[in-house]
Design a protein that fits this description.
The structure holds three protein chains of three kinds. Chain B is an all-alpha fold. Helix content of chain B is 75%, strand content 0%. In chain C, the strands form two sheets. In chain C, strands 6-7-8-3-9-10 form a six-stranded mixed beta sheet, with helices on both faces. In chain C, strands 2-1-4-5 form a four-stranded antiparallel beta sheet, with helices on one face. The chains are: A mainly alpha, B mainly alpha, C alpha/beta.
């Protein structure tokens, strides 16, 4: 029983991290209509920024996270202005290649600055909390709590504020939004900033458990793609639900089936689902 | 006129390639060039599905690894002669390509890229974890060099260089026939617009699958050559970074041209060689270069040059005569 | 030539085309008109095979072609143009047209690699068909121009030539005179009439009423996905339902 609950906790932890990354990715997809392969590098940049701030400058964990969020938001907005905006009329292939260029640059940059080794990120939450017969690492609870809070805040922002509503409108129908007079530039920059911040914070939450290294974004981003394909491109609820599904599938799969092949689970799911339903689980309109 | 020039150009390149071992300083240069040729074969393959047919296949290096591991596993674990294993490498990759293609080519282009990204990861993870088959992270070592065929012996670097060059020339020749034929035009029509191609009576699935299977055949072949040349393998060759490298070559040279990917695949590694300090961090430079290319020079070096040539060869736009007429009437 | 029987298309809860029936006789020019959003392009997409009907039948020359894919329809002789034509902007005009006849060729990969006589013959035939089509639309003089440089009107003609090189029996033209001035429109109308005279059946979607009234043999009027009128230009001009459908929308 405890083992089962342990896996539930692991599932929630993973799900929380994946959801945050997938949320940013899905919002940006709504604007670009192209998968942003650089998103995984944003995730990594978040971890390295926080690592720098915490380990080298001695800031505390939360300031590190805030700094990371701000740094990645900036990187993200710069990507939008300098790369994706000039390419807005180009064929999709060019967008994909450009996003790969950004990805390669950021990863190589991180390696140039901090070397190819794995780094540990320090967190003040190393305790183990006991609830009856359950032992729960505090960091995992923190991840779950923080992810949940961020998702709720994001939902409130998207549904209750005007700016948020315009982002949703653009994510779902860019041409329609433009027709209604929504300022595409402002919304694009804001969306990229939010997406970057979410990815950065997700990395800072997860890194203490999982180490910091230049290719840490690869698996996460690929799974995030799986999530938004399954949950629906541009769909916020889809990203959240999808993230949780993949998180649970991995946690339980790792424990009950095999730890070696746990990473394949998300990809196998994608291959399976797209084989049966080429338009994804939640096909929407004319994408 | 243009085709005449092209024939001369290709002949010159061939002559240079044949003379290279005598101009090269040492065996190390031969190694760099031979490896570049191997990746050029794979890149030219990628160009067929991505440059000519418009589908960005991110699992390409996975297929190259399939070819490489076919040779590695068969020769080292089962004692199969190199040439037999090598003959199979392209076909094994193509067979897997049929299955992957059937599922993935129905998807819209972005989904296709994401899907193939995942397929590539699956291939990498399988190679890494399936130790009983692939030797896992340790990789396969001690792959035998290609056996001699008659008087031709392939144990020396120079002979190996010519062997690889032979396959490069053969691949380019086949690719040249394909892209300059009705089949090539069919692929380009698909890249241009799925809908228009269909309206012209072109069956999409059949042709996309053909392009895809052909392209991964080249990848598998290149992988088989890689195994016989480098003589050891690790899961790293299946990594998506290799596909990114090849994408870089295509873009620098010129996507959707024949010469472009070739020049890119040869030029870029040499450039990295000379800028040794860049080797580890080459993407700090290449990343932004890729972005700048895509924004300002999307047709690559060769592509832009070819477009200019075409413009010169085409008939000029008619000069606006009307205003002059009006003046003279007045 | 083309019989449409009770064609219906539903997208989820939205009915784009509702129980439309029509007959298009061989060698005639038929116009499909209606306010924006009336379902005209959807109707075209159903006929050409780009989308599948929810119900109804399409008979082409007596043969049931309902639900065929677009490329299968093209092979049977149904050609279509689009509102915007994607051309290879960096290639010459003639180069663009060669692939138009591909569907009538049988060369395979083996032919390509071996460079067989069949391939050489078929490529020659494709080039000849391309030239012939370009000549038919009156643009033989620009065959060596770069496709990206030609005018909008020339682009439209090239799109016709592309469709013609598939050796069609039926031609579906989606806004063939879009974006061209009145003088050019008349030129295109003459070309369309020339196509019908040569034996082709033509269906076109257009918004330019002068062009339609002078060109079409029969007109089909759609509104909200339903057929509200059908007949000769004179009959349509006098039809009260049609006049009402256009009241409030700005059509010349």
């Amino acid at each position: 029983m405890e083992l089962f609950l342990q896996q539930v906790l692991n599932g929630l932890t993973l799900g929380g991290v994946y959801s945050l990354v997938a949320l940013g990715l899905t919002l940006v997809y709504g604007i670009l209509h192209v998968p942003n392969f650089a998103h995984g590098a944003f995730y990594m940049a978040g971890a390295y920024s926080a690592f720098f701030l915490i380990n080298r400058l001695g800031l505390n964990y939360w300031w590190g996270m805030l700094g990371a969020a701000a740094t990645v938001a900036l990187i993200s907005v710069l990507s939008e202005r300098l790369v994706f905006h000039p390419l807005r009329k180009a064929p999709y292939l060019h967008h994909m290649i450009a996003s790969i260029g950004i990805l390669l640059f950021l990863e190589a940059g991180a390696q140039a600055l901090w070397g190819a080794d794995f780094h540990r990120m320090e967190t003040p939450y190393t305790q183990l909390l006991t609830f009856g017969s359950l032992t729960l690492p505090a960091q995992r609870l923190l991840i779950i709590g923080a992810a949940f809070t961020l998702v709720v805040l994001l939902q409130v922002f998207l549904t209750r504020t005007i700016t948020g509503a315009t982002i949703v409108a653009m994510a779902q129908n860019r041409e329609g939004a433009a027709l209604v007079g929504i300022d595409a530039t402002r919304v694009a920059m804001l969306t990229f900033a939010i997406a970057g911040a979410l990815a950065g914070m997700a990395a800072v939450l997860y890194a203490p458990i999982n180490l910091v290294y230049t290719s840490m974004g690869h698996l996460v981003i690929t799974k995030a793609f799986v999530i938004i394909v399954l949950g629906g491109m541009g769909s916020v609820p889809g990203a959240i639900v999808g993230g949780l599904i993949i998180g649970f599938a991995e946690a339980f799969g790792a424990f009950y089936i095999s730890t070696d092949y746990k990473d394949i689970i998300a990809f196998a799911l994608l291959v399976l689902i797209l084989s049966v339903r080429p338009q994804g689980l939640f096909a929407r309109g004319a994408h | 006129m243009k085709r005449f020039n092209a024939k001369i150009g290709w002949t010159v390149l061939l002559l240079l390639a044949l003379a290279f071992p005598y101009m090269a300083g040492n065996d190390y240069h031969l190694t760099v060039m031979s490896t570049a040729y191997i990746y050029a074969i794979a890149t030219v393959g990628l160009n067929l599905i991505t440059g000519y047919t418009g589908q960005f296949n991110l699992a390409h290096s996975g297929f190259m690894a399939v070819g490489a591991y076919t040779v590695g596993i068969l020769t080292v674990d089962y004692g199969v002669p190199f040439w037999v294993a090598f003959a199979l490498s392209g076909f094994v990759a193509a067979a897997i390509g049929v299955f992957v293609g059937l599922v993935s080519l129905r998807l819209k282009t972005h989904f296709f890229s994401i899907f193939t990204l995942c397929v590539g990861y699956i291939m990498f993870l399988l190679i890494e974890k399936w130790e009983s088959l692939t030797h896992g992270t340790g990789g396969i070592v001690g792959i035998p060099a290609p056996e001699s065929i008659g008087p031709l012996d392939f144990s020396e670097p120079r002979a190996q260089y010519y062997l690889v060059l032979f396959f490069l020339v053969a691949s380019l020749w086949i690719m040249h026939r394909i892209v300059h034929s009705l089949l090539g035009r069919t692929f380009m029509a698909i890249r241009n617009s799925d809908d228009l191609a269909q309206a012209l009576g072109i069956p999409l699935m059949r042709n996309k699958l053909l392009a895809f299977v052909l392209s991964v055949f080249f990848a598998g072949l290149a992988g088989g050559l890689y195994a016989g040349y480098v003589r050891f393998l690790g899961p790293g060759i299946a990594g998506v970074e290799n596909t990114f490298d090849m994408t870089m070559y295509m873009l620098v040279g010129g996507i959707g041209t024949l010469l472009g990917p070739l020049l890119g695949a040869i030029g870029v590694p040499w450039l990295t060689q000379y800028l040794q300090v860049l080797q580890e961090y080459r993407f700090v430079v290449f990343g932004p270069v890729l972005v700048l290319l895509v924004i300002f020079l999307p047709h690559g070096i060769v592509g832009t040059w070819l477009n200019r040539q075409r413009r010169k060869a085409a008939s000029p736009a008619p000069v606006a005569v009307a205003p002059v007429k009006e003046v003279s009437h007045a | 030539m083309l019989d449409i029987e009770s064609l219906t298309k539903r997208f989820g809860g939205l009915t784009a085309v509702n129980d439309v029936s029509a007959r298009f006789a061989r060698g005639t020019i038929n116009a499909i008109i209606g306010p924006n959003g009336a379902g005209k392009t959807t109707f075209f997409n159903l006929i050409s095979g780009a989308i599948r009907p929810t119900s109804g039948r399409i008979l082409f020359d007596g043969q049931d072609v309902t639900g065929l894919r677009a490329d299968q329809a093209a092979r049977l002789g149904m050609a279509r143009t689009f509102q915007t034509t994607a051309l290879f902007d960096t290639a010459t005009v003639l180069d663009n047209l060669i692939v138009g006849h591909r569907l009538r060729t049988r060369s395979t990969l083996v032919d390509v690699i071996l460079g067989t006589k069949r391939l050489r013959d078929e490529e020659r035939i494709c080039r000849e068909k391309a030239r012939a089509a370009l000549d038919f639309v009156g643009l033989a003089h620009i065959e060596s121009r770069i496709a990206g440089d030609i005018s909008q009107e020339e682009r439209k003609r090239v799109a016709f030539a592309l469709a013609l090189s598939t050796d069609p029996a039926l031609l579906l033209l989606d806004e063939p005179a879009g974006g061209v001035n009145p003088e050019e429109t008349e030129g295109l109308a003459r070309l369309i009439r020339k196509m019908a005279h040569s034996g082709l059946t033509v269906c076109l979607i257009e918004h330019k009423m002068d062009m339609i009234m002078n060109l079409a043999d029969r007109i089909l009027v759609l509104n909200y996905g339903e057929k509200i009128a059908e007949g000769t230009p004179a009959e349509i001009r006098a039809n009260p339902a049609v006049i009402e459908a256009y009241l409030g929308s700005e059509h010349a």
